[in-house]
Write a structure and sequence with these properties.
The complex is a heterodimer of chains A (about 100) and B (about 500).
Chain A (H helix, E strand, L loop, with lengths): L2 H10 L11 H21 L11 E2 L2 E2 H22 L9 H6 L1
Antiparallel strand pairs in A: 1-2
Helix pairs in contact in A: 2-3
Chain B lengths: L2 H26 L5 H6 L6 H12 L2 H14 L5 H12 L4 H11 L4 H9 L5 H34 L6 H50 L2 H11 L9 H19 L2 H9 L3 H11 L2 H19 L5 H4 L2 H10 L3 H37 L9 H22 L5 H12 L3 H9 L5 H20 L4 E2 L2 E2 H18 L3 H11 L1
Classes of the chains: A mainly alpha (about 100), B mainly alpha (about 500).
C-alpha cells in the first residue's frame, strides 16, 4: 500500500483529524441528542395510532400536529448537536510533527 | 400598472441586481484557479455559507414541486418537513470527518475524496467514473427541474408577457452569465440575496394564507369540506413509504455534489457547524410553509390534474395579487423569492456540474491552466441541452423528476458514508455494489415498480449495494488485509 492510501486508511480509522480537546461530556451529550432526534423521527410517523378518526390538535389533524411537533423538537436537538460537533481544522505538517 | 407588468418590472430589476453582484464577484476574485472559481477560495463565512446552503437546498422542486405534491397527497405530505430535516441530521455522519481531510488535501470536487480514499486500489478509477457519472446525471436532472420551474413561474407572473419558453432561455442565460463571470463567489453572494428574498416571500405568503383562511383550524375545515379524505390517517403502506422517503432523501441528499463542495468551501469547521445548526430550522420555515400552501390550494382550486398541481403556488399568488396594489407588490416579492430559490439551486448545480465533469469525468488536472475554462464550456453546453429539454418535456411532474434522481444518486452513498468510517472498505466491491444498486433502481423505473410495499426501489437497491460492498470488502484477499493491518497498526 502506498503512503497516500496508508494515510487515507489511518484517517478513516480516526487516528488523525480527531480532536483530543473536546470534553467527554460534550461527545456523550452530542450522541444523546442524536439518539433523541432518531426517536423523534420514529414518533413522527403515526404507526402506533389506532383506527380512531383523527381529532384536532393546534387546528390540524392530531397526527399531523404530532409529526410537526416532533420535527420542531428534532430541529432543536439537531441544532444543539451541531453546536457540540467538533470539526477540527487540519494542523500544518510541521506542527503535527512537533506535537 | 397591472400585476403582469409589475411582474415584468420586478423581474428586470432583480436581474439587474444579479448582474451587479456578478461583476462585483469578478472584481473580488483572487486567481483563475479551479479552487477560486469553484470554491470561492475556500473563504465562505457563516452568514454567506448558511444562506448559500439554504438557497441551494430549497429549489424549484421545493417551491413548486412540494406544494404540488401536498395538493395531490393531502396532509400526509407533512413527511416532506421530516425528510428535509433528515438531510441535516445525516450530514453528522459525513461532514465532521470529511471536512478536515478536504481542507488539508485541498479537495475541489467530490471525486477528490474517491481518489484520496481509494488511491491506486484495483477498481478505484472505475469507481470514480461511476460515481461521477451518477452525480453528473443527478445534477443535470436537477437543472432540468429548475429550468422547468423557472419557465412556469415566469409565464404565470408576467401573465404570459414572457412565455414559458422565453422564461427558460432568459433565466438560463442569466445564470450562465453570472456563474461564468463570478464563479462560486458570485453564486454564493447571489444565493445570499436569494435566500433572504425567499424567506421574506414565504413569510408574507404564510401570513396572507392564515389571515385569509382565518387560521389553521379554519383552513383544515375548508380542506376537509372539499376533500374529506385529505386528513385520513396513512395506512401501513403509506407509513412505510413515509419512512422510506426519509431514508431516500436523507441519504441521497448528503451526496449532492453541490452540498459536498460547500463543505469544502467553508472558511473553517466552526463556520460549517454553525451553518448546519442554523439549517436545522429551515425545513420548518420553508418546507412546512410550502406544504401549507399546497394544502390551502385544495380549498381554492378543485380538480387540478397531476401536471397542473405543480402550478398551485403561482396560481395562489395570482389570486392574492388581484386583491389590490399592496398585495400585488407583496405577491411580486414572493414571486421573486420563489424565482430566486430556483435560480440559486440551478446556479450551484451548474457550477458543480462543470467541476465534476472537467476533473472527475474528463480527468483534467486542476493544475492545468485551462481546466476552469473547460469546466465553464461544459456548463454552457449542458445548460443549453437542459434548456431545450425543459422546453420539449414540459409535461413531467416535478416530484417524479426528484424521485428518479434520488433513486440513482443514493447508490453513491457507500463510497462516501461507509468508506469514511470503515478502513477495510474496498473500491472493487464498492463498484460491484454500485452497479447492482443502479441496476435494481433502473429496472424498477423501467418495469414501473418504483416502490415495493411502500419502499422506494432505490432504497432496496442501496441495501443490496451496501451488502455486496461490505461482504466483498470483508472477503477480500486475507493476504492483502493482513498487509494493510500491518501498515495500519
Amino acid at each position: 500500500m502506498n503512503t497516500r492510501s496508508q494515510k487515507a486508511a489511518i484517517e478513516v480509522r480516526g487516528e488523525r483529524g480527531a480532536s483530543p480537546d473536546q470534553p467527554r461530556w460534550a461527545r456523550w451529550l452530542r450522541r444523546a441528542l442524536l439518539c433523541g432526534v432518531g426517536l423523534l423521527f420514529a414518533a413522527s410517523i403515526p404507526w402506533y395510532r389506532g383506527d380512531a378518526p383523527p381529532a384536532k390538535l393546534l387546528g390540524l389533524p392530531d397526527w399531523v400536529a404530532v409529526a410537526i411537533l416532533c420535527y420542531a423538537a428534532a430541529a432543536v436537538l439537531n441544532s444543539a448537536a451541531w453546536l457540540l460537533t467538533d470539526i477540527p481544522e487540519p494542523v500544518a505538517d510541521d506542527e503535527a510533527r512537533k506535537s | 400598472m397591472t400585476f403582469e407588468w409589475l411582474g415584468v418590472a420586478g423581474l428586470i430589476s432583480y436581474l439587474a441586481v444579479l448582474i451587479g453582484i456578478a461583476l462585483a464577484a469578478r472584481r473580488a476574485r483572487q486567481s483563475e484557479s479551479p479552487a477560486d472559481h469553484f470554491l470561492a477560495g475556500r473563504g465562505l463565512g457563516v452568514f454567506v455559507l448558511f444562506l448559500t446552503l439554504y438557497a441551494t437546498a430549497y429549489s424549484g422542486n421545493s417551491l413548486l414541486g412540494y406544494p404540488g405534491q401536498a395538493y395531490r397527497q393531502g396532509f400526509s405530505w407533512v413527511m416532506a418537513t421530516g425528510f428535509m430535516l433528515s438531510i441535516i441530521v445525516v450530514f453528522h455522519a459525513l461532514a465532521p470527518k470529511l471536512r478536515p481531510i478536504a481542507a488539508r488535501e485541498r479537495f475541489v470536487t467530490p471525486g477528490d475524496w474517491i481518489r484520496f480514499r481509494f488511491s491506486n486500489e484495483p477498481g478505484s478509477r472505475a469507481l470514480l467514473l461511476a460515481v461521477s457519472f451518477l452525480m453528473a446525471f443527478a445534477l443535470a436532472n436537477f437543472l432540468f427541474g429548475s429550468l422547468k420551474a423557472m419557465g412556469e413561474l415566469t409565464e404565470q407572473f408576467t401573465g404570459a408577457a414572457i412565455s414559458y419558453e422565453w422564461g427558460v432561455f432568459l433565466l438560463a442565460g442569466m445564470i450562465l452569465f453570472y456563474e461564468t463571470v463570478g464563479g462560486m463567489r458570485a453564486v454564493a453572494w447571489t444565493d445570499a440575496l436569494q435566500g433572504v428574498l425567499m424567506l421574506l416571500g414565504l413569510g408574507a405568503l404564510l401570513h396572507w394564507l392564515l389571515g385569509e383562511s382565518g387560521g389553521l383550524g379554519s383552513l383544515t375545515n375548508q380542506i376537509l369540506e372539499v376533500r374529506p379524505g385529505a386528513a385520513d390517517l396513512p395506512d401501513v403502506r403509506e407509513q412505510i413509504n413515509w419512512f422510506s422517503t426519509i431514508v431516500l432523501m436523507g441519504l441521497a441528499s448528503v451526496v449532492y455534489p453541490q452540498a459536498i463542495q460547500r463543505i469544502y468551501a467553508a472558511r473553517s469547521g466552526r463556520v460549517l457547524r454553525r451553518s448546519f445548526a442554523l439549517m436545522s430550522f429551515m425545513p420548518l420555515a420553508t418546507t412546512w410553509v410550502v406544504t401549507l400552501i399546497g394544502l390551502a390550494a385544495i380549498a381554492q382550486f378543485q380538480g387540478l390534474g397531476d401536471i397542473e398541481a405543480d402550478r398551485v403556488m403561482p396560481l395562489l399568488l395570482g389570486v392574492w395579487a388581484r386583491e389590490g396594489l399592496g398585495l400585488s407588490i407583496a405577491a411580486m416579492i414572493v414571486f421573486l423569492g420563489a424565482l430566486a430559490a430556483i435560480m440559486s439551486t440551478a446556479d450551484s448545480v451548474l457550477l458543480s456540474l462543470g467541476s465534476v465533469a472537467a476533473e472527475d469525468l474528463f480527468g483534467r488536472s486542476r493544475r492545468e491552466a485551462g481546466t476552469t475554462r473547460f469546466g465553464k464550456r461544459i456548463a454552457v453546453v449542458v445548460m443549453a441541452g437542459m434548456a431545450l429539454l425543459a422546453i420539449g418535456a414540459r409535461n413531467v411532474t416535478l416530484w417524479g423528476v426528484i424521485e428518479l434522481k434520488m433513486e440513482l444518486l443514493i447508490q453513491c452513498v457507500p463510497a462516501f458514508l461507509i468508506a469514511i468510517h470503515w478502513s477495510r472498505f474496498r473500491a472493487r466491491p464498492a463498484l460491484m455494489g454500485l452497479i447492482f444498486g443502479v441496476g435494481i433502481a433502473i429496472a424498477g423505473v423501467i418495469l414501473d415498480s418504483k416502490r415495493i410495499y411502500g419502499v422506494h426501489i432505490g432504497v432496496i437497491g442501496l441495501a443490496v449495494n451496501a451488502a455486496i460492498a461490505c461482504i466483498g470488502s470483508l472477503l477480500g484477499s486475507p493476504r492483502r488485509s493482513s498487509q494493510r493491518a500491518t501498515h495500519l497498526e
